Amino acid sequence: MNPLKNKKLLLLYLISIIYLWTNTYCTTILYAPNMHANPMIEEKGDVSVSAAASSHAYIVTGQAQAAYSPKNNIGIVANGFYTQKGRSYGYLTEAGAGYFNTFHDNFRYEVYAGAGFSGQRQGDPLTLNSKLTFVKLYVQPALGFTSPYFDTFVSCRLANINFTSVRNFDGKNPANDTTYVNPDILYTASHRSALMWEPAITLRAGVERFKGFIQLGGSAYLAGNNLKRDGLYLGVGAVYKFKVK
Question: Contact 48/39 with Cβ under 8 angstroms?
Answer without folding.
Answer: yes
